[in-house]
Design a protein that fits this description.
It is built from 7 helices and 8 strands. The protein has a 5-stranded mixed barrel with strand order 1-2-3-5-4. It has a 3-stranded antiparallel β-sheet with strand order 7-6-8, covered by helices on one side. It is of the alpha+beta class.
């Protein structure tokens, strides 16, 4: 009986060496996150070596056997060479992959998350957008896509459209004035009017123009600190790839 074959497009979020020349891949497709066994992928004669690298976006032919997906054929679509040639960008992209793996689910529609990751890698390697800007926008938009979008359209307590000395309460997931909600506030990260405007653009603006803005360094730092802290608080965990990326910046 012929085994059923499926063809999917996906990006490799993680690649683990196993046995002598095999890999087990974690791949994000429009249909969700899936584990794929790539037999012989580390062999010199393998035709799928390129498309089984971390962050490789490829068309994959899969065959299911005993509940496992096996890679039969693969054709690379984009390897993001511009990212791979720079250690800082590669480490940041690896953080994006780890964060995506931590939040994407199996067999759950993930087209939006896939597009977000692909566009982030393109913005880094091809458009040469500032890494700190791409990082903050990616983190905030990903949180939005998985159901943790912070409420940023007004102060959550007094309703003021432009909060005075705005803060992001990362535990409650709301923006507020510094003077509002003091008795209920958990951990609050300071924002500036520029950082808040950028946050709103990321959360509520056109996804196709996610990275098409600029910020002063001080505003970008506030946005980046707030987005990173928000991710860690919502997910209740840290990321080794992020730690490595930040070590390169010291």
């Amino acid at each position: 009986m012929a085994r059923e074959r499926t063809v999917v497009k996906g990006i490799v979020l993680r690649a683990v060496d196993t046995k002598e020349s095999d890999k087990i891949l974690t791949v994000l497709t429009p249909g969700g996150k899936t584990a794929v066994v790539a037999k012989g992928a580390r062999s010199r004669k393998s035709r799928v070596t390129a498309c089984t690298q971390l962050l490789a976006y490829a068309e994959l032919t899969l065959t299911e056997t005993h509940g496992w997906q096996y890679l039969g054929e693969g054709s690379s679509i984009e390897l993001f060479e511009g990212v791979r040639q720079d250690i800082e960008m590669l480490s940041l992209a690896s953080y994006f992959a780890e964060l995506t793996e931590a939040t994407a689910l199996e067999d759950v529609e993930s087209g939006g998350i896939l597009s977000l990751l692909l566009n982030a890698l393109y913005a880094l390697g091809n458009l040469k957008k500032p890494p700190r800007l791409v990082k903050a926008a990616f983190e905030l938009k990903l949180m939005s896509l998985i159901g943790f979008e912070p409420l940023a359209d007004a102060c959550a307590y007094c309703g003021r459209p432009e909060p005075e000395e705005p803060l992001l309460d990362v535990r409650e997931g709301v923006v507020c004035c510094r003077a509002c909600g003091k008795g209920e506030r958990g951990l609050a990260m300071p924002l500036s009017p520029g950082a808040l405007a950028a946050m709103r653009r990321v959360l509520y603006g056109d996804p196709k123009r996610l990275y098409s803005f600029s910020l002063e360094d001080a505003d970008l730092k506030k946005l980046g600190d707030a987005s990173e802290t928000y991710v860690h608080t919502m997910l209740e965990r840290g990321f080794k790839t992020l730690d490595f990326y930040k070590s390169l910046l010291l």
